[in-house]
Structures
1.
Amino acid sequence: MSAEAADPGAPLRRRSRPRIDLRRLGRVALRGPVSRDRLPDAIGHVAEAHRAHHPDADLTILRRAYVLAESSHRGQMRKSGEPYITHPLAVTLILAELGAETTTLTASLLHDTVEDTEVTLDQVREQFGDEVCYLVDGVTKLEKVDYGAAAEPETFRKMLVATGNDVRVMSIKLADRLHNMRTLGVMRPEKQARIAKVTRDVLIPLAERLGVQALKTELEDLVFAILHPEEYKHTRALIAAAAGPDAPLDTIADNVRGTLRDAGISAEVLIRPRHFVSVHRVRRKRGELRGTDFGRLLVLVTEDADCYAVLGELHTCFTPVISEFKDFIAAPKFNLYQSLHTAVVGPGGAVAEVLIRTHRMHKVAEAGVVALGNPYAQDAATPPSEPSDERADPTRPGWLSRLLDWQESATDPDTFWTTLRDDLAQDREITVFRTDGGTLGLPAGASCVDAAYAQYGDRAHTSIGARVNGRLATLSTVLSDGDTVQLLLAQDTASGPSPDWLDHARTPTARIAITGWLTDHPEEAKPTPSTMTSLYDGGPGPAEPASPERDAQATAPARTRSGPRATGVVVDGPDAPVRLAGCCTPVPPDELTGFVVRGGTVTVHRRECPAVAAMQEIGRAPVGARWADAEGRESDAGCRVTLVAESFGRPRLLADLTEAIATAEAAIVSATVEPPSEQRVRHTYTLQLPDAAGLPALMRAMREVAGVYDVSRAQHPAPAG
C-alpha cells in the first residue's frame, strides 16, 4: 500500500539509505540506557537525516527528548505489536528528511507524551523551553479534534486557529497522520475507510495549502488505495507496465541534457515519476495514456535567472506547447510554490512536461513550510519575548493568515466551519494583477467581489464596479488567471454591499464580510438588482453590434435635460423632446446639428462630433438646431460638458484637478480615471457649469495644474455610468 513505487522521492528519502526498520529500532530502544556521550542507536537515523539539512545542528536536545519519550512510553505498544516509541521516532524521521529544524524535531519526539503518559506540559517547558512546550501543547490539542461530520465546530475552530499561530504544529500533525496511514492495515476495514475519508477531506487539503507536497502526495496514494482499491490496482499495473529502460522520457531527458550542456548552462535533469493519484487523474482526463504521461522532467539550477535561461533554450531547440506554460516564479502560488512549467515536443512527437526550478525552490516545493525553519528564531541582539497565543509568523502562507482573519470575523462557529470546508474544497487558484503592480491570489471562479475584499477588506463595502483588462466590468464578473483588475470604490463611505453580492462571492473573506455588514444593517439589506447589472453598460460579456444611434443615446439620466426649453436649444420642425448628446456635450457657442432617435426625441450634437458623420453614413437626415437667444433660455440652466485631461502621474494629481474644477464653480457629475499607461494618466470629467462662458477659463485652470499637458473637449462616446 506504499506510494513509493510511484514516486520514490515522496518522503525525500535518499536512495543510498536503506529503508529503516522501526520495529527493530523500537526493540533496541527497550534494551536500556546508553552512554551519555552519544545518541541512542534508535535515533541515529534521525540525527543523520537532520545533519544532512542542518550540518551544525546541536543534537544534545534531541538525545534528551528521546530519552524522555522512550522512558515515558515504555511498556506501551501499538496495535501493530510494535513498541509505541516507534511512532514518535517515525514521525520525527519524516520531518527530519523534509528538513525540519531542531525545535520541531524535539517537539515531534514528545508530541504524544502529554496526551498518553504522565508527563506534563510544565515538565516539558522546564526541560525544553517555551517553544517546544508551545508546539507539544498545540499538537496535543489537535489530537482531541474529531475531523469528521460530527465535529464540534467551535472546538475545531479553536484547535485549528491554535495551529495557525505556528505552522510547525500542523507540520507535526501531518507527519503523524502519514505514519498512521502507513500502518493502517492492522485496523478493521470500516475504520480504515473512516480515517481515510477524514484524511482526504481535511488533512490533504491542509497539506496542499502548507505546500508540503511530499506528505500530500503520499497521503493521497494511501487514501486512494483504501477508498478505491480496484482503481488503485489498475493504476499500479499501468505504472509497472510502463517502467523499463526504453521509456520515452529517458530519450527526451538525454536530449535536454545535451541541449543545456551545449548552451553552457549547468543544470541537473531528472525524471520525476508521477504518483498513483496523478497518473489516475491524467488517465481520466485523456483516456489513453501516453508513454510520457507517467512522469515529468525536472530541471534543477542554481539561480532564478538560470530558470529563464533553461526555458529559453528549451523553447528554442524544441517545439513548445505554449498552452502549458506557467510562470510560478514571478507569481508564486498561494502555498509558496515556485517553478516554471512548460511542455515540449520530443522525438517522434512525444510531449514531455517540464518543471524548471532552483534547488531552493525544489526544497520548498517538496517540504513547504517545513523547509522554512523556525519562523520565530530571534537574533542574538534581540531580547527574548514571552510566547503568546497571538504571534505574527512572517513565513505563514497567505491561506493561513486569511484563516486567522476569518475566525475573527465569523463570530458564528458554524459559519466558520462551513466556510473553511468550502475553501478546502477549492483545489485550484488563480493570480490576478492589480494596477499598482501587486497581485491577488484567488480561488478559481472568483469574481470582482472577491478581488475587492481581498484588496480592500471592509472598504470594499463601497465597491461600485471594476475595470478588468481595461474594460468596465460589473462586480459579478468572473476573473481568469492573469487578468488585470482595478476596483472602483464610491466616495460615499456609508454605502454598503447588496445581498446579491453573496451570489458571486467565492472567498470566505468576502462572504463573511458581506454577511456581517448585512446582519448589522438589516434595513438596508434588500436586494438591489441594478447594483450588479446596471452600474456599467457594455462591460465584459456578449457585446451588442455597434450603433451610432445607440452611441448618440448613450447618456445616463443624470446627464440629460429633456425638453426644448430645458436644453436651451431650438430645433427645426414640430415640438419634440430635445437631448444634448453625452458623447460630445455641446455648450454655447458650439455649432449644432440634431437627429431624431427612438421615441421622437431629437439628440443634439456638436457638428464636429464623430457621431454626426456616422449617422449620416447610415442615411439619417440631420435636423437643424441652434442655441436659443438669451431671453429664450432659463438663466439657471447652465451647461454640461465633458472634458478629457491628459497628464503625467504624480501624487495628489487628482486632488489638485478637482480643486481647480471646484474653484471654477463647476460641479462634477461623473469622473473616470483610467489605469496609468507609461506613467501617463487620462481623466474624463462630465461637469455642470453655471455658465458656458466660463468654460475657456476652466480649461486653462486645469491645464495649469502641474503634470497636466492637455485638456480637451470629449470627441468620442462617453462611457455610460
Note: The mean pLDDT is 77.
2.
Amino acid sequence: MHSLPTRARRALFGAPKETEQIRSLALSKRSALAVFGADGFSAIAYAPDEIIMVLALAGTAGLAMSPWVGLGVAIVLLLVIGTYRYNIRDVAVSGGDYHVVTELLGPKTGAAAGVSLLFDFVLTVSVSVSSAATYLISLIPALAGHRLPVAVFLVVLLTLLFIRGLRFMGRVAAIPAALFVICLTATLAVGLVEAWTGNLGRAPSHEFYVRPETAESNALTGFGLVLLIARSFSSGAVTLTGVESVSNSVRFFAPPKAKNAARSLTITGIATAVALVAVLYLARSSGAVVTIDSTQLVLGGRAQSPDFQQMPILAQVADAVSGHGALFHVLLVSIVLFLLLAPAAAYAGFPILASTMAEKGYLPVHFRARSNRSLYANGVLVLGASAAVVTLAFGADVNALIQLYVVGVLFSMSLTQTAVFIRRRREIRVVLDSQPRRLLLRDQIITMVGLVATVSATLVVLLTKLAQGAWVTVLVVGLVTLAAWAIKKHYSAIERELAVTQKNPLKALPSRVHAIVVVPRLRKPALRAIAYARATRPSTIEAVVMNVDEAGTRTTRKLWDKYEVPVPLTILASPYRDPVTPVIEHVRGVRQASPRDVVIVYVPEYVLEHWWDKFLHHRSGQKIAAALRREPGVVTAMVPWRLGHEDEENLA
C-alpha cells in the first residue's frame, strides 16, 4: 500500500503503544495463519448448510440456485478481502478495528464497535462448538439427542485449554489445521473429478423430496425470488466473519506484522471462497440437502419427524465422494478438531479488547489487565461463561446462532471501513505531491468499494435477518453500548469530583478529630480498639455501647468501672435490638454539632479461622462499617482480632 509513511501517520493521528507482553506473544507466520485463519475457513463446515437451508424453503426446485448463491458470496468475500488488504496496515497502525473507529469516528462510536466485536467473539465460540457438536453426532450417532450438553461441554473444554494463552494455541494449531486442509482438499479434488466423469456417488439425503414452505410459483418468481436469494446470501455471508479475526489480530503476527497478516487474510479468503463454491457444487451434484425444519423432508409420501437427525452438507458430500470409508471418518474428525480451533482468535482477542475498553472507561475496571496472566485468565473465563449462556439459550442450534452472528460482524466491519475512508481523506489533504497523491486517490477508491460492499451486505442482512433473529444482536449490542456509555459517564463524573483543583490541597485541615469506639461487649478486641484510638491522640474520645440487651449492658458497665477503662462510656438506646441504627444516629449528632470536624469510628472485628465460622457469628461490626461508609466526614477504622491466634495477638 502506498500512502503516508508509518512514522508520519503515527505523528499525525497517534497510535497506542504496544506493550512488551503483546510483542512477546507474536506467532510465526505458519502458527498465526492456523490460529487466526481458522475462524474464517471453518465457515466451510456450516456456511453451505445455511445457504441450502434457506433455498430449501422453496422446495427441491430452489436448491438448483445454491452454487450460484455461493459464487455470489465468494465474489463479495474476495472483494472485501481485497479492500481489507489495503486497509490492514491502517488498522494495524491504530491497534485494531476498535482503535481505528474510536480514533476517527469518536469514542462513543468506538464503544459501539467494541461491544459488537465482543459479542461477535462470544458468538464465534457458540457457533463453532455447536457446529462441532453436530459433526460429532454424525460421527458418533449414539450422541443423537445430546447436542446441547455436548456443545456446553466443548465450551468448558475450550475455555480450560485456551486459558493457557496464545503460545499454547500456536503450538497446537498446526496439526488440526493441516489435517483438515489435507482431508478437505482430497475430498473436494476427488469429488470434482468424480462429478465431471459421472462417477460421483449420491448423498444420504438424495432420496428426499423437499416440500416447499410456500408455493413454488411465488417463491421462485418476481419479488419472492429476489427475497429468497437475498436471504440465502445473508446466511452465506457468515464466511465473511474471518476477515475481522485477522484484522484485529495483526499485533500477534511476527514482523512484518501487517504484511504477514495481509498474506494470511488473502490465503484464508481465497481458500474459503473456492471451497465454498466447490462444496455447494458437489452438494448439488450429489443431491445433498438439509432443511431448517426436518418436516420439509418427504420420503415415500411421509414427512420426517421434527426430531429427525440431519447430516451436515460437508459430511454428506464426503459420504458421496468416499462412502463411509476411512476418508469420511478422518475428515469428520478433522472438521471437529478444526472447529474447536476456530475460536482461538476470539479467546485471544476478547481479553485484550475488554481490557482496552476498560482502560478507556467503557467497561468495569475488573476487566483491566495488570499482567499477562490476568489478561487472559479473566477475559477467557468471561468469554467462556458468556458463550455457554448463549449456547444454552439457543439450544446449540447453529442456524439460530447464525442469524445473530452475521449482522454484528458486518456492522463492525462497516464502521472500520468508514473510519479508514475518513483517514485516507485526511491523508490526501496533507499530501501535495502529484505522484503520492495519485496513489492515495487509488487507495481511497479501493476503500470506497469495500465500504460500499460491506454496507450493502449489512443492509441486506438487516432486511432479511432482522425478523429471523438478528434483532437479538441489535438489541444486545444496543443495550450493552448504552451501558458502556453510562459506565464511562460514571467514571468521568467520579474523576471530576475527585480531581485536585487547589494549589495547596492540604491547606485546609479539619479543626478537631473525634474518636468513637464501638464496644459490643468489653472483651479483648474492644480493649485493643480503645488502645488504638487513644494512640492517635484525638481531640475527644468516647466508647459507645448499644443497649440491645439490658443484662449485657449492665455487665459491660460493671466491667468498665471494675477495670477503670480511661475512656468515657456512652450507652445508646436500641429499643428494636438494632446494633447499627443507634451508632449511625449518634455519629450524625456529633457531625451536626461540629460539621468541620472529622469523626473516626473504631470498630473491632473478628477474623474467623475457618470459612464456615461466619455462619456462627453475627458479625455486626461489618454491618456498622458498611453503613458508616455512606456518612460524609466519617472515617471507619476496622480493628481486627484473629481468632485462634491469641499468643500472636498478645505480642501485637
Note: The longest helix spans residues 434-498.
